[in-house]
């Protein structure tokens, strides 16, 4: 994607800079576009835990580079296993993280220590290239859905899309998942408008999705997380498209906390609810998402405090709850497959059923 006309990915390596890894510090957006240089696996782990880098596909890609950084210091068998385990433990819900680490281990274990550093950078690079290509394909398949809506409505009628959290290019290596079809629809002249859930407590919608869409010129409106049901009741949402952190083989969908409530409201109002994902987000080992997907519990301070820019242009953090109130902060929820209209993958769209998934990925049968 482009920022001020310059194409960027969300992670890149600078060979001239000692092969360090670069990301945008997402905790600084939308008020500053700061690049972070990561030179050690500990810095990578810290960036993932604190959500300087986030989004299921992107944390997988960055962790893969984290392993490459680790091997520069010690490429022994022991170090490989230990550093892989350390990086995989940074966040529990998104399966892409474990998928990327497993793929790196499978590639690197048979090699000699001397071969591993170059091979790790090359494999992490392939993971990035594949993610960008998969998301572009997701965009093309999702675009068909939006074209169909546009055709049903009359070419110039507005198509209102609701999205939750951030599943845009900054959550992936490039393009995004849920936002990829929206960018493509906007670029080909469809009249799309996006309702952006603010996505408390970390405000990925208000801070990141709104910033991305605005940078690309896509019309959008930020709404309180609780507004979606009301908008659907009044015919103001034509389709919901969200990303996901893990889809089970039964097609249950883990995504940012609050996604389930949007799916319930969508079902009650007859609004199609679609989930966009690369196949790296499917956990074929797990069937029942509600029982089996580990849900990250984050610090209660993300609920009790909020950050933003004050009227003097300074970033401030303020408390919004009474002293002494405790806070619980489950970061994800699971939307059962029965509430999902369909899945948009790089292989095409399918029903949110085991059969639907297997029709696109028969090798998993
Ligand atoms: O906690 P986050 O910000 O990493 O959560 C991100 C999401 O829930 C996204 O919707 C999901 O990772 C899909 S990103 C293409």
From TrEMBL:
It comes from the Bacteria. Gene3D superfamilies: translation initiation factor eif-2b, domain 1, Translation initiation factor eif-2b, domain 2. The record marks 165 as: Transition state stabilizer. The keyword Iron does not apply. Keywords: Amino-acid biosynthesis, Isomerase, Methionine biosynthesis. Pfam families: IF-2B. Substrate binds at residues 54-56, 91, 204, 255-256. GO terms for molecular function: S-methyl-5-thioribose-1-phosphate isomerase activity. The active site is at 245 (proton donor). Pathway: Amino-acid biosynthesis; L-methionine biosynthesis via salvage pathway; L-methionine from S-methyl-5-thio-alpha-D-ribose 1-phosphate: step 1/6. It is an enzyme of class 5 (isomerase). GO terms for biological process: L-methionine salvage from methylthioadenosine. It catalyses: 5-deoxy-alpha-D-ribose 1-phosphate = 5-deoxy-D-ribulose 1-phosphate; 5-(methylsulfanyl)-alpha-D-ribose 1-phosphate = 5-(methylsulfanyl)-D-ribulose 1-phosphate. Its EC number is 5.3.1.23. Belongs to the EIF-2B alpha/beta/delta subunits family. MtnA subfamily. Catalyzes the interconversion of methylthioribose-1-phosphate (MTR-1-P) into methylthioribulose-1-phosphate (MTRu-1-P). Also catalyzes the interconversion of 5-deoxyribose 1-phosphate and 5-deoxyribulose 1-phosphate. Part of a bifunctional DHAP-shunt salvage pathway for SAM by-products. This is Methylthioribose-1-phosphate isomerase. It comes from Acetobacter okinawensis.
């Amino acid at each position: 994607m482009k920022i001020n006309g310059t194409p960027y990915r969300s992670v890149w390596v600078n060979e001239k800079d000692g092969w360090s890894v670069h990301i945008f510090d997402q905790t600084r957006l939308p008020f500053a576009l700061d690049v972070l240089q990561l030179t050690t696996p500990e810095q990578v782990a810290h960036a993932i835990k604190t959500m300087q880098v986030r989004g299921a596909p992107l944390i997988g890609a960055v962790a893969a580079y984290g392993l490459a950084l680790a091997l520069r210091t010690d490429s022994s068998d022991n170090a490989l296993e230990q550093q892989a385990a350390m990086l995989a433990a940074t966040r529990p819900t998104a399966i892409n993280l474990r998928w990327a680490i497993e793929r790196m281990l499978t590639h690197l274990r048979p090699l000699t220590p001397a071969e591993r550093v170059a091979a790790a950078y090359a494999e992490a690079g392939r993971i990035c290239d594949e993610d960008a290509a998969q998301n572009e394909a997701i965009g093309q398949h999702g675009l068909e859905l939006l074209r169909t809506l546009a055709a049903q409505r009359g070419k110039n009628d507005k198509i209102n899309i609701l999205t939750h959290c951030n599943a845009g290019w900054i959550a992936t290596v490039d393009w995004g998942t849920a936002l990829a079809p929206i960018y493509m629809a906007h670029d080909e002249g469809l009249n799309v408008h996006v309702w952006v859930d603010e996505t408390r407590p970390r405000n990925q919608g208000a801070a990141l999705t709104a910033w991305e869409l605005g940078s690309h010129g896509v019309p959008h409106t930020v709404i309180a997380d609780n507004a979606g049901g009301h908008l659907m009741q009044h015919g103001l949402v034509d389709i919901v498209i969200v990303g996901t952190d893990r889809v089970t083989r039964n097609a249950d969908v883990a995504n940012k906390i609050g996604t389930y409530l949007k799916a319930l409201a969508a079902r009650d109002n007859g609004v199609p609810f679609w989930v966009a994902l690369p196949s790296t987000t499917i956990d074929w080992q797990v069937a029942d998402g509600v029982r089996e997907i580990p849900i990250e519990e984050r610090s209660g301070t993300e609920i009790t405090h909020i950050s933003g820019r004050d009227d003097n242009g300074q970033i401030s953090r303020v408390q919004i709850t009474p002293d002494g109130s405790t806070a619980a902060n489950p970061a994800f929820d699971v939307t059962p497959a029965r509430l999902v209209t369909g899945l948009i993958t790089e292989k095409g769209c399918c029903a949110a059923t085991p059969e639907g998934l297997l029709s696109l990925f028969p090798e998993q049968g």
